Amino acid sequence: MFHNSSQKKYWTFKSEDEVEQMRVSANEKFCKRVLETAKPVVSASVLLERYGEEVLFRHYERRMLEFCNAFKPAMPKSVVGTALMYFRRFYLNNSIMEHHPRIIMLTCAYLSCKVDEFNVSSTQFVGNLVQETPAGQERVLEQILEYELLLIQQLNFHLVVHNPYRPMEGLLIDLKTRYPMLENPESLRKSADDFLTQAVMTDAGLLFSPSQIALTAVLNSASRAGINMESYLTECLKLKEDKETLTKMYDSMRRMKTLLKKYEPPNLEEVIVFKQKLEWIHAQLASSSNKRKRGYEEDGHVAKEPRLAAEVRQYSRIFLAFFFFILKVLVRS
Amino acid sequence: MDDQGCPRCKTTKYRNPSLKLMVNVCGHTLCENCVEMLFVRGSGNCVQCDTPLRKSNFRMQLFEDPTVDKEVEIRKKVMKIYNKREFDFPSLREYNDYLEQVEDIVYNLTNNIDVENTKLRMEQYQKENKDIIQRNKAKLTREQEELEELFLLEQQSNEQRRLEVLQEEQRQLQAKRKNKQALLDELEQSQLPATVLLAKHKVRAAQLETEIEQQKQNVKPTSIFSTGIQIRQNVSLQPLPRIEEVLYHYKPLQIETYGPPVPELEHLGRFGYLNHVRAAMPQDTAGGYTSALACYRAIQDAFSGLFPPKG
């Protein structure tokens, strides 16, 4: 359940500033590392700034959403939500310049299918990339498999993601059962769904619990329809006495709505410019680092050498012993 | 089994899993072939530690770790000398001290710590307690003989019982055969009609069966329990000590969900939640699914973490 999940413990932050700070430090760390390796071509002006990264992130996020929506067979909403959350969490601690978002986005979707038990074979998965030839799809699949372990590592192996879809269903059931003042809660469903789809493109999942997001969605759609649902909070959730919790909840709902309002889809020209920069950076960096397997970088050397040497030693010892034995025989005779 | 190779020939152990390892007094292992190889040339030194060895000192390895084998050998030798029993000591504390002494000695000898001193201590102890050692040795042999006698007795009685059962079976078979033969003879010779004869035969067979059943019921009563205590002998037992403790009270686990309380699974139907969930179809209920399960999960998820944490 969410209350004792890793999401609550490690991946829910207190404020938008904290989240932004993590992204800034990831960017700075990468820039510092690249500049220290002292490639003369790469200077500070060529590297992407925080704004550029943000634009590209949003662009690739939309691309991923379109990919998941066009997926055959139809991907359940929770799988899409999990994939987007992985994408977001990955780029909290890593810079876009370091790992290209195109591969990461496909790897996130692939991993999310596995984790959420939405059974898709790997060939079926890459078959959804309609603009590639089968050989191209193979190559993409290889890349996905290379990056998978790195992705899991950067998620700190916390793979279970709680999405707001089931809490929304639960809230609707509860409304129907305990809140007779609202005649038709089903009418709220559509706009609440839209709210959730918008919310998944913001940082809301990193700041609030999924049930809070669902509640905000429902209340928002109710207020849009002109219905006042405050009595639900005070009566059914028994918050009449607990003013402090009530004010805190209203506060978080307000913050969430602001987050959604602040979201703007990325500007196409900016995207093109930043994308060019990104491709150039990746080309530069890919040529310098040799092609090691991603995620296996720590244990670079495999333990094959010592065993080979030991075998060589054994055989040489046997040969020597045989040689001396022959020698002895010859000497004796 | 293969994680240790023979330190001399190394390969042979991997290639020949049936090859046995032998261990000697210094605690190092050698495979059979190497042992013979070593003593063919007349030199008897251990490969790893260079202590002079005799071929007779090599024993078959019982344990995977040669140090364990070495310790077992040393312990056997030490226990031959240090063989006092619990009732030789006036109190439990002294017995434990004695045991600790023995363990110290074994440990020292196994790990080659202070070997000289330990050996001196052993000799001293042996000299002081010579007569006690002798007496205990005699007692040990006597006990072992008694155990062996009991064991023999038990085996003999088992044999006897088996023979008796066999004989009984033989007798029963013979009786049946005789019965059949008698029927055939009567059919041949007697003047009575065949049905009467058959009826008589059936009655006789039934009688035989009941006799056999009765005999089976007659189990010979034994007079002795398997531990050697006679039946109907009053054995005085010490009253068991009563241990009083605080009774255990079950307290259900409390988990903080940071949200409003969730109704129990069983009460969902009563509150009317189930009217708003898709009803379970017959295919679903066959596997044990009820609509309450899905409803409960949705409600739990909706309420979990709803309230912001206090403070």
Task: Please give a handful of descriptors for the protein shown.
heterodimer, A: mainly alpha, Cyclin A, domain 1, 15 helices, B: 311 residues, mainly alpha, Herpes Virus-1, three-stranded antiparallel beta sheet, 3% strand
Helix/sheet category of chain A: mainly alpha
> Quick one: biggest sheet of chain A?
none
Uncertain ranges of chain A? 295-307
The CATH homologous superfamily of the largest domain in chain A corresponds to: Cyclin-like
Order of helices and strands of chain B: HEEHEHHHHHHHH
Compute the number of helices of chain A: 15
Q: Helix share of residues of chain B?
A: 40-55%
Oligomeric organization of the protein chains: heterodimer
**What is the CATH architecture term of the largest domain in chain A?**
Orthogonal Bundle
The low-confidence parts of chain B are none
Largest interface summary = A-B, 34 and 28 residues
Q: Indicate the mean pLDDT of chain B.
A: 83
Percentage of β-strand residues of chain A? under 5%
Whole-Å distance between the termini of chain B?
Answer: 60 Å
CATH class of the largest domain in chain A: Mainly Alpha
**Element-level helix/strand string of chain A:** HHHHHHHHHHHHHHH
Secondary-structure class of chain B: mainly alpha
Number of beta-strand segments of chain A: 0
Strand content of chain B: under 5%
Shape call of chain A: elongated
Protein name (chain A): Cyclin-H
Pfam families (chain A): Cyclin_C_2, Cyclin_N
InterPro entries (chain A): Cyclin-like_dom (IPR013763), Cyclin-like_sf (IPR036915), Cyclin/Ssn8 (IPR043198), Cyclin_C_2 (IPR031658), Cyclin_N (IPR006671), CyclinH/Ccl1 (IPR027081)
Domain Cyclin-like (chain A): 62-153
